[in-house]
From TrEMBL:
Taxonomy of the source species: Bacteria, Bacillati, Actinomycetota, Actinomycetes, Streptosporangiales
Source organism: Actinomadura harenae
SUPFAM superfamilies: lambda repressor-like DNA-binding domains
Name of the protein this chain belongs to: XRE family transcriptional regulator
Top-level taxonomic group: Bacteria
Transmembrane segments: none
Amino acid sequence: MAAKKIDPHLRTFGAKVKRFRVEAGLSQADLAKLVNVTRSYIALIELGRTRCRKDFSERLGAALKRNDDVAEAWDELVSSAKYPQYYVDFATREATATMLRTYSADIVEGLLQVESYARAILPSDADLLARLKRQEVLKRDPALTACFILDESVLRREVGSPEVMNEQLRHLIELSGRPGVYLQISPTAYYPFVKGSFAIATQSNREESAYAASVFGGETSEETEHLTKANELFAMLQARALNVADSRDFIGKELENRWT
């Protein structure tokens, strides 16, 4: 019988609980005693193999002295209202990844967008707040490895206004100098089998998830065949893109020549 697939929301919540526990200097047995459950139940939560109730999450938060953090994690991962349904699984995997790789074919990747650029694209303030919160993954300490490839047409496609584009390209230049961020520009060309934007999130245990955008929204997959194809395509795009330094210079020239 095939093993039951773990819900990525529960897995992400469990990973956060484990991180809070370790930071508090507690063993699973210690935490179990504080909240009056068995050690095995704590293990199931941390593995994402069970869904705890809201009232129990509050007990966890109190025991870990992380009330707000645990409550926020529980609310986000249960409601999932901040993301389109097709994107929810990848968003939860992205939040705990140690490496992210994205290719953007048409607009600036959401993690790299300034507020004015995102506001011009997103339909509501709630979506904007979710986008800005999602960007916090780039501020983690220690920093994750984040590799971004933008098609050069992204830098020339006006979103919002010339002023918005000026701010956005300046932000890209600043981001490209941050530790752990590798931003490259790919020349506009035909790339076999690349149908649009996609992303790969890699966890510390090397598990991966891939997301591919489409006209109907998008799809998240953890199928071996899909992951292999996504990794191959990203490697090909990376090989054909400008290196990081040349990409930064290219963005600067587009900023000066087109958006200043």
